[in-house]
Amino acid sequence: MDTGTTEAGQAAETAIPELVIISGMSGAGRSTAAKCLEDLGWFVVDNLPPALIPTMVELGARSQGNVARIAVVVDVRGRRFFDNLRESLADLDAKEVTRRIVFLESSDEALVRRFESVRRPHPLQGDGRIVDGIAAERDLLRELRGDADLVIDTSSLNVHELRAKMDARFAGDEQPELRATVMSFGYKYGLPVDADLVVDCRFLPNPHWVPELRPFTGLNDEVSGYVFHQPGAKEFLDRYTELLQLIAGGYRREGKRYVTIAVGCTGGKHRSVAMSEKLAARLGSEGIETVVVHRDMGRE
Question: Could you tell me which of 184, 199, 191, 179 has the C-alpha nearest to residue 284?
């Protein structure tokens, strides 16, 4: 038996995950920070009771490397906050778990404005005012803020700027990925409600009116060949791919990680399907993780 290989395998199975604890003031951007880490490949758990954090780390250690980075959002919704959290942090330190605390801060004025804009009470205000809840939470979190490895003041930050700060700290040398869904659809069935960009292929002749092509879809080589032999089809694909490369760079800078590109024709069977397949292949060759969905193919 190769003991070296066995020991290496056991080490991989019990590798302790890296841990980030996200906390801070309600309304300061905890959810945005957590979503950013999730987009960077972290396993994120929201509102986990602090007493369960060591258990979560142990489960990650048994995942054979599948859960290498864990982010946990803890806040005042857990009520008996500090008693359990202090015990959990001490337990993690005793086990030599690499952990960091990210604390989201914001001014009273900014927090009041945010709570009023969404018309929700502060979780600690009770029968009092929003400012009373903010003051109580600040007092409760003061010690944790002092222990934080990273404090981010979001008073004057928008969502994109907060994401940029999280990316700068946790993305390392890797460029955050952009993931695209290319969806073919038929206009007669309505626009996809989740489309970020819409492409109209109805300027191309419709294979539906070619009797030998009508029964097939845009996945068929003959149909695809017919579509892309039409004047302007290849040029459109080239130009739109270039445009998407420009847009993708802007999306990355603005912290947008997912984009849905809807490609439409009349029935969603021929032209849009063929164009979606080619467009997805182009995006994939540019390093953009791409999924193709044919929403209306087969509805006729």
Answer: 179
Q: Which CATH superfamily is domain 18-170 in?
A: P-loop containing nucleotide triphosphate hydrolases (3.40.50.300)
CA distance 218 to 97: 53
Cα separation values, 291 from 18, 24, 112, 281, Å: 30, 36, 41, 10
Spans of all domains in the chain: 18-170, 179-294
Annotated binding site for ATP: 24-31
Residues ≥6 apart with Cβ < 8 Å to 251: 178, 257, 259
Mean pLDDT of 140-155: 87
CA trace torsion 254, 260, 261, 264 (10° rounding)? -150
CB 229 within 8 A of CB 221: no
The token pair that represents 60 in the structure block = 């990650």
Binding residues for GTP: 75-78
Report the pLDDT value the prediction gives residue 149, as an integer from 0 to 100.
87
**Distance between CA atoms of residues 136 and 185, nearest Å:** 52
Residues 87 and 84: their CA atoms lie apart, in Å, by 5
Bind-site residues:
24-31, 75-78
Q: Which pTM was predicted?
A: 0.59
Condensed to tens digits (0 to 9), the pLDDT of residues 24-42 reads 999 899 999 999 899 888 9
Do residues 194 and 273 lie in contact, with contact meaning Cβ atoms separated by under 8 Å? no
User: Across residues 58-70, what is the average pLDDT?
Assistant: 85
> Rounded to whole angstroms, how far apart are CA atoms 235 and 238?
5
Q: Side by side, which strands form the sheet with 43-46? A: 43-46, 69-73, 18-24, 99-105, 150-153
Question: What is the pLDDT, as a whole number, of residue 47?
Answer: 82
Three-state SS for 47?
A: coil
Q: Provide the token pair at 114.
A: 């945010």
Q: Percent of the chain having pLDDT more than 70?
A: 90
